[in-house]
Amino acid sequence: xxxxxxxxxxxxxxxxxxxxxxxxxxxxxxxxxxxxxxxxxxxxxxxxxxxxxxxxxxxxxxxxxxxxxxxxxxxxxxxxxxxxxxxxxxxxxxxxxxxxxxxxxxxxxxxxxxxxxxxxxxxxxxxxxxxxxxxxxxxxxxxxxxxxxxxxxxxxxxxxxxxxxxxxxxxxxxxxxxxxxxxxxxxxxxxxxxxxxxxxxxxxxxxxxxxxxxxxxxxxxxxxxxxxxxxxxxxxxxxxxxxxxxxxxxxxxxxxxxxxxxxxxxxxxxxxxxxxxxxxxxxxxxxxxxxxxxxxxxxxxxxxxxxxxxxxxxxxxxxxxxxxxxxxxxxxxxxxxxxxxxxxxxxxxxxxxxxxxxxxxxxxxxxxxxxxxxxxxxxxxxxxxxxxxxxxxxxxxxxxxxxxxxxxxxxxxxxxxxxxxxxxxxxxxxxxxxxxxxxxxxxxxxxxxxxxxxxxxxxxxxxxxxxxxxxxxxxxxxxxxxxxxxxxxxxxxxxxxxxxxxxxxxxxxxxxxxxxxxxxxxxxxxxxxxxxxxxxxxxxxxxxxxxxxxxxxxxxxxxxxxxxxxxxxxxxxxxxxxxxxxxxxxxxxxxxxxxxxxxxxxxxxxxxxxxxxxxxxxxxxxxx
Length: 624
What we know:
Helix content: 55-70%
Largest sheet: 6 strands, antiparallel
Number of helices: 21
Strand order of the largest sheet: 3-2-1-6-5-4
Strand content: 5-15%
Radius of gyration: 55 Å
Low-confidence stretches: 302-307, 529-535
Mean pLDDT: 77
Shape: elongated
């Protein structure tokens, strides 16, 4: 039956060449013209059916690829992966050698390669196309598809050396490009290209345009997804910040309540430091204006903060004081303690972990509370200092003799106890020196005052020299340089204290006249000058202080060192005449003088000491 063979060929999807077989067999068998005509007609119909089936299969493949692309968009997780899939499917369905996708760079005003499939040239993958240049630049500029079977001979678009070099490096001859449109705005171009001459038909351009539409949707979805994720991230961060701020506000309020309760209960600076240390999970100390920890503060364990050295602590505190700003060092945070424009010191936190904003505010608020406490302490100390100073003024001037002891008792002092009396010069800032003297005296149960431009302190329980050294050290620390002080005592009762004050003042004036600034001395330390200044004029004690070793040596050994010394001075220091007067050899005189040097020390024959020695010799002779 005619046509059966062609049905069999259609059934097994034979190639178009095989459809010539039945017709050639009939001609070889000598079939008539009518049979040959019917076979040719059947072959034409069969080829037409085969073309329709082929077209439908191709369309089915295209629709399947588009459906897969749509599925990729529905589950978009990686925009680069989706774009690469689109470009790969475009290449497969169009049967092109190369497929690629470029995107517009609005800031640079050109387009750049985003995805390439089938490319081997690095130069081609890196090429950028100015708007209007090359086929792709023209598509991007006009939003219209363009196809060129012979790219290098096509004069419809502007050729540039850079683009043509990249195209030639890849070996491309035919190119088709379709725009990626998003709300009538071109955002890029999708291409297919061959390395041989190939005209691209309408159906291929339409298919490529469909893929370009999917690519534009993928990019827009990626943008929306990115914006949504960014918004969600910002919302999440804002929520976390709000929660953190709420927690920090609650912590700050709790810390404020604890500090307020502590102050109302009479807590001092050390109590505030201890409380803040517990709140912030570290150790807090109070530093002075120089950045050094104040004496008497809370003890800080050596393991409090690894790496927080005393040098780093002091330097950070000093910076906080000098700049009036909270400073951070290595494991150290210091908040300045300020009262108006005056820097009182710094509150220093030792903690390994860095501080957040809430913790920093708690430390700064604690510094403010500390400043208030220090001001309150200062006002109380000033009132006490004024009362105690007025009391000592009355003692020294002999006022109110009946009420002095009772007033002293109320002030925590006992005038009948043995007191060392110290008179010191005022060095540096006067108010600071007065405060330092009051602090020292108050801490030892004594009194202090500023009288006639000099600081007067009476300190119970101390030996006069010890008291003078303590005063010189404390006032020198406040002034930043040595302080000169005279001392007397011990004295008990208002009258003796007043007399000792006059003697200590004379010692101070003598030290200043002699140029011995920064030293401390009593009458016994000033030699014959002290003998002249002293009220009692204890001559035997003076003689013993100067010649005691020589007198003791003669008494124990029966020698005549004292007589040798007196004769030596009587002969004007001449060894020969001294020997003649003593009826001994000059060498013997030399040996005795060497012994005297061992007993009195080097320099006894110097002009300054010689006067004291000769005066002691004369006084010894007068004493018999």
